[in-house]
Fold this sequence. Notes:
With 150 residues, this protein is of the alpha+beta class. It is 44% helix and 23% strand. The chain has helices at 62-72, 80-96, 104-118, 120-130, 136-147, and strands spanning 11-20, 23-30, 36-42, 49-51, 57-59, 101-103. The protein has a three-stranded antiparallel β-sheet with strand order 1-2-3, with no helix packed on it. A three-stranded mixed β-sheet has the order 5-4-6. α1 (62-72) packs antiparallel against α2 (80-96), α1 (62-72) crosses α4 and α3 (104-118) runs antiparallel to α4. The longest helix has 17 residues, at 80-96.
Amino acid sequence: xxxxxxxxxxxxxxxxxxxxxxxxxxxxxxxxxxxxxxxYEMIEAVPISVLKKDxxxxxxxxxxxxxxxxxxxxxxxxxxxxxxxxxxxxxxxLTNALKDTVTSAEIxxxxxxxxxxxxxxxxxxxxxxYREFKDIETFMEELRAMLSPS
Length: 150
């Protein structure tokens, strides 16, 4: 890190704070001229690839989850904040798993697990599309599994 005043590469960190979830703000002091300056360090995110059912790979896009969950939650008492928080939790779990590739099935199961705790009707709506229910019996099996004590 070069001092903006004298160009020295020697500085000491006086204070560090999280600026947001993806960067760190550091207050520094130059060892040579004692001038203070601020730097921001960005956390480099490794892109996560999603292996889809058809075998293709694509980059993880949280907006796809948001779109699917919004459709499932249409006219339900689920707020945008709840949806955003759920998607952030899923994204953080995927990042913390330190895997560079995840299957769409894993993501779908994570969404269903979280959605079930928020709104059961939205959960069933999402599951009906995600699991591609073919008939009413498949739908009823999911309902029975949901209603049975675990």
